[in-house]
Amino acid sequence: ENAGNTQKWGIGFAGTNDFTVFDATGNASRIFVQASSGNVGIGTTSPARLLHVNGPMRVTASALPGTPATGDIAVDSGDANKLKWYNGSGWQEAGGGSGGGRTSCPAGFTLIGTSGSAEAFCISSNQETSATWLGANQTCRGKTPKARLCSASEWAAACVDGASGPNNMTGHWEWVADLSGSAGQVMGNAGCDSFAYYFVVASYGSRCCFR
After folding, report:
1. Which uninterrupted H or E stretch holds 91?
2. Is residue 20 helix, strand or coil?
């Protein structure tokens, strides 16, 4: 009951694992708590997640938190009320379509493509340590956030970016993810459009990518 006595809320237990919230006019909302897992359901008696809502939800528009934690979700009132999530290094626009892409990259990576667009991705700013094709893959998987060996098309797009792109991409071979039988593709020796194939046990530098 609030100070002005204009609204009243009551909680009436309907069982050991569920309760009903009533407003002043008697409208009820039933909330179910799954005893074995602690999952909470609204509009469902069998919640399958920590919070399971069966029906529409609303996130009120607000300024983005100044000290966010990875995984936080908020509506950015300063950017057309877009729904965004925090990936540990920056706020990303949620959703798909023409937007929802990367807007920033962590240290050691360079953003390629239009910020926020679907095709935007991050690539290693400098060549990774020489390794076999499999070793290069494992190096990328060990990154934070987890990355992968760049595809030939991603590598070429980053190379063509020139001065605004990653450092020293030409003048040597670098592994990309593309394979031809037991041979892996390398790129960059004579320029952005230079490529060849070598056995995957050979050792070359590489670049890691993620979106």
Report:
1. strand 91-93
2. strand
Number of other CB atoms surrounding residue 90 within 10 Å: 13
Cα–Cα–Cα angle for 192, 92, 83, rounded to 5 degrees: 145
* 193 vs 80, higher pLDDT: 193
Cα distances from 86 to residues 63, 70, 94, in angstroms, run 13, 5, 10
Distances (CA, A) of 125 to 101, 106, 163, 166, 208: 19, 10, 12, 4, 9
Q: What is the DSSP string of 123-188?
A: EESSPEEEE-HHHHHHHHHTSSS--EEPPHHHHHHHHHTGGGS-S--SSS-EEEEEEETTEEEEE-
What are the counts of helices (DSSP H) followed by strands (DSSP E) for the chain? 2, 18
> CA angle, 90 as apex, 92 and 105 as ends, to 5°?
95
Query: Which of 97, 60, 65 minimizes the C-alpha distance to 81?
Result: 60
Residue type, position 186, single letter:
V
Give the predicted TM-score (pTM) of the model. Answer: 0.58
- Predicted pLDDT of residue 163: 65
pLDDT for res 24: 65
207 and 196 Cβ atoms separated by less than 8 Å: no
Helix or strand run (H / E) with residue 199 = strand 195-199
Of 185 and 90, the structure prediction assigns the larger pLDDT to: 185
SS3 (DSSP) at 44: coil
Structure tokens belonging to residue 24: 């002043």
